[in-house]
Amino acid sequence: MALLPILRFPDVRLKKVAAPIAKIDESLRQLVSDMAETMYEAPGIGLAATQVDVHKQLVIIDISEDKSDLRVFINPRLERCDGFQEGEEGCLSVPGIYEKVERAEQVTVHYLDLEGKEQSLVAEGLLAVCLQHELDHLNGKVFVDHLSQLKQTRIKNRLAKQARVTA
Ligand code: GNR
Ligand code: NI
């Protein structure tokens, strides 16, 4: 088990596009376990491999109250989006910043589970938001990219100031 360092916006490595996973092996299972430990410790409800500087199509999510429902998505693809919802989002790579983002209300994703089996999931509400947020990470996007240029600049300034205070 290991805690992994999380990349912070505006680190350019957060812009990398993740590659599909070809083989589900012990090193991938170890990565999932380390990412879960990192997400729970943060604490967060989701984590994309991109955020720990691994540019593979892997996402974990647990929106339960008691860390009891870890979901693993390998090579996830968004197959369908319906409706709209708007909620406050945060990101472990953009600490302390919360902004409203518009997302689809319901999504269908296809992915592989840890056994390599094809799965599909229809999600709505917070799980749908989280999936869209994590799939964005795999495509090199953070939630801040959905905001106006003015807000993005303010967020960069706020984070830089924060970093100076904690340094
Ligand atoms: O912990 C997280 N909370 C959250 C809240 C609203 C919308 C999305 C998220 S995901 C975030 C963890 C994270 O940064 N995942 O990439
Ligand atoms: Ni995030």
UniProtKB/TrEMBL annotation:
InterPro entries attached to this UniProt entry: Peptide_deformylase, Peptide_deformylase_sf
A GO MF term: peptide deformylase activity
Sequence positions that bind Fe cation: 91, 133, 137
Catalytic activity: N-terminal N-formyl-L-methionyl-[peptide] + H2O = N-terminal L-methionyl-[peptide] + formate
Pfam hit, one: Pep_deformylase
EC number(s) from the headed UniProt entry: 3.5.1.88
CDD domains, alphabetized: Pep_deformylase
Gene Ontology BP annotations: translation
Keywords linked to the UniProt accession: Hydrolase, Iron, Metal-binding, Protein biosynthesis
Cofactor note: Binds 1 Fe(2+) ion.
Names of required cofactors: Fe(2+)
Active site, renumbered: 134
Function recorded in the entry: Removes the formyl group from the N-terminal Met of newly synthesized proteins. Requires at least a dipeptide for an efficient rate of reaction. N-terminal L-methionine is a prerequisite for activity but the enzyme has broad specificity at other positions.
Similarity section: Belongs to the polypeptide deformylase family.
Annotated protein name in UniProt: Peptide deformylase
The encoding gene: def
